[in-house]
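Hi team, as promised in this morning's meeting, here are the two structures we talked about. I've kept the exact order from the run log so nobody has to guess. The first one is mostly here for context; it's the second one we should focus on when we meet again. Sequence first, then the predicted structure tokens.
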Amino acid sequence: MSTFYKTTVKEVKQETASAVSVLFDIPEAFKKTFQFTAGQYITLQAFIKGALIRRAYSICSTPHSGEIRVAIKTLENGVFSTYATKELNAGDVIEIAAPEGSFLLQTQPNKNYIAFAAGSGITPIMSMLKTVLETEPSSTFTLIYGNKTVAETIFYSELLALNVKYTNFHLDFICSQERQEIALFGRIDSSTTNFFIKNKYKDIAFDVTFLCGPEAMIHTVSNTLVEDGFLSENINFELFTAAIDETAVAEIKHGTTEITVLLEEEETTFTMNQTDTILSTLLRHHIDAPYSCQGGVCSSCLAKVTDGKAIMTKNSILTDGEIADGFILTCQAHPTTSKIIIDFDDV
């Protein structure tokens, strides 16, 4: 079960027409709890139109700043993002959970970092690049940042200011729907990736890569970098959206499953429909299972299948080895056997 802390919104800053950054006033008693590493996220929780909604948002401030700030972009039909960008104001009280996540910056001197980000994927990257620039003067950070237009580019002015201030920061914008002198026209794909790696920055030997954005972009850039000689273990990524596995969807049955859940040393058993996800069923049975994004791109809802089988319709987190060991994202998992045992404590 996730622990949520009531905090007051200190500032809501309009970053673009459809995006805001939200600064939280963390009480002194919780300061230690909210220490974080650049790249991590927090989960926000609020009652919206009578329903309890949780969503995960990456931290864009730096660990040494002493601040917890996230950026939120309005999504079509996004209940929480619409609430946060249209209704949330300074002075409002909202609940947030402690930072988590495995998309991490491990700073070292004399390293060359490069990041590819698209849209709101800039959020964790912003924390990373500012951390490197402010704490590692012997390192460099190169950012390739794609958006539809300059007007939709989150942190646009701040990035330009950082580019002027720090000589070890290389910045390139890409716009897909308008031509601007300051930006390359197009998308972040294999050709643009090769342009930066093989041409513009060919004299820099990059040590670590960070990718954040849509799944298709991450796969394309990752594959291109590997073809260019990058080691896969030095390519770190975080998805903001995950594609649906149509093969997995086709395997979902219309039967029922007897499910036993182990959570905080308590055992609960009931029958569920196999067309429902395990997490949604648990929440309907008022079991306070951990969760956050509900989109298969974080690991807050992680659990282990100790008996039976389940299939996931989305997964951008777990490796084949972890899946073989029985780990599942319960927000995307459907049982496929008549009985299943799920353990949240053994993760």
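And here is the second protein, the one for discussion:
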Amino acid sequence: MANLLSGASGGITRIGRYFTIVSAIPAALFATYLYVLIKSGAWTGTLDWAKVFDGLQLADVALLTILTAAGALAANPLQFMLIQFMEGYWNGALLRPLALLRTLHHRRRYQETEDQIDASAWYLSRLDADHRPPSRRATLDALRADALNAEMRRIRAGYPDGLDEVLPTRLGNMLRRYERRAGSMYGIDSLVAVPRMAMTAQAPELSYLTNQRTQMELAVRTAVLGFVAAVVTIPFMWHQGAWLLLAAVPYAIAYTSYRGAVALAAEYGTAIATLIDMNRFALYDRLRLAHPDDSAVERERNVVLMKILEADPRTREAAPLLAYVPPAQPPEAVAEQATDPTSGEE
């Protein structure tokens, strides 16, 4: 899904607004927090919060502004890598074992939810209609089974359809779910098609997609910086007694921001699916492809189209070939042909 984020961003992101929201604001909050820690005197052993603002000078404000801008500029190109990392694409000898453990954890959770869904559905199917929800005479056990089934389906909605597609993180699994589902009913690969559909979509649709993406990336950036702030707080407050608990504040912000990013990933995935639903025919028109007669033909053609768009060399021998529509003639040319008596002669 990170590839989709990167590919779609080029045509749909207003860099000024995006930079301000996703990069500048979190960087400013993080730099201010570090400034407060440093000026508090906690590192030298004498904690005094009054020092933070008593010695505040214009030079400190200017330096803080410069550091904020520099940090935001330096972190902005890393957003793609941050998304990938938070999705669970962990490489290297140190992170690979952790990725394996987390993937196994989520696979077990995936299988447990499937088992609970099947078991509760089987139990409810054995009951008479008068003794299971939504009947008012439903038994307590039936209500519990129905609630369990609903909760397990909610958890299951955070995973992709295939067990072999499960990733090490919640965010990665939510994005992978929509990455695979969006456009699949039309034979469209969202990773391939969405960057191109972003070039043909209307402004309201792009605005909806961009807003969802910006909110998700802001939550991811806040989660990362919150975790870093929590780690940095520990050595500052290590000898300050109960003030060590201050590290729990940025950690709580990081945790809630991450869970918010997972929820926003579902909204972003819905925006991607909506973009495909509403703009696939505009893409066909832009590529001068004939409209399919039905959904079955559309899926068959899109299998070939996706291979062509991703420059798959195997499409050179692919069949059936895609039918192109000749460009529409301007009204002036049509009127001229209608009035020219020799236009029909060979």
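Starting points for discussion:
The radius of gyration is 27 Å.
The mean pLDDT is 85.
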